């Protein structure tokens, strides 16, 4: 008996764009269809990676240099990959991750210094995995920032870098999507939540393997 094919889906976008909400909605919809779904996040998604998460998303904006952040994110991602993503895909699950390597490429590689080469080198050396499908939720930076800060989650370090930073992030994500059109699908986050959820599901349906 062959193992069913898994699918690795990631959500990307700026802070407050609705990624987390729509990752959850997608997971609920697919589970309702009888699929094995693992909903996870970055940084985090495994015990060790969750410990590193607190170092990255809490504290003052200048807590770490971009280079240090890249190393911490990569360490968390390796733990996430080993303990959560690979085992789930091996058994044929749909893995839905709220952020993955594209966030590091944009947040640290493209918007806080020209560190893209360093991000790519580390990714190739210790991660070596890309999603099957990446859903980029495009959102007005000012609106998204107000949403993110309103949550008062205690994980506001990147939101506290300000609107200018969010605008650079939005441009960085769009540029990355343009470079990888086969993998990225652009979702208009300005629509109402039900419309966004329908657009997300439509984009995923075409990539889904047949149920076992």
Round the Cα radius of gyration to an integer and report it: 16 Å
Residue share in β-strands:
5-15%
List how many beta strands DSSP finds: 5
Q: Low-confidence stretches at least 5 residues in length (pLDDT < 50)?
A: none
How do the helices and strands follow one another from N- to C-terminus?
EHEHHEHHEHHEH
Strand count, sense and closure of the main sheet? 5 strands, parallel
Structure description:
- The protein has 212 residues and is α/β, with parallel strands linked by helices.
- It contains 8 helices and 5 strands, in the order βαβααβααβααβα.
- The chain has helices at 19-32, 47-57, 66-90, 101-110, 116-126, 141-150, 163-179, 193-205; strands at residues 7-12, 37-41, 94-98, 133-138, 184-188.
- It has a 5-stranded parallel β-sheet with strand order 2-3-1-4-5, sandwiched between helices.
- α1 (19-32) crosses α8 (193-205), α3 runs antiparallel to α4 and α4 packs antiparallel against α5 (116-126).
- The longest helix has 25 residues, at 66-90.
- The N and C termini lie close together (11 Å).
- The mean pLDDT is 88.
Keywords:
single chain, 212 residues, alpha/beta, 5-stranded parallel beta sheet, 8 helices, globular
Task: Give a short synopsis of this structure.
The chain is α/β, with parallel strands linked by helices. Helix content is 52%, strand content 13%.
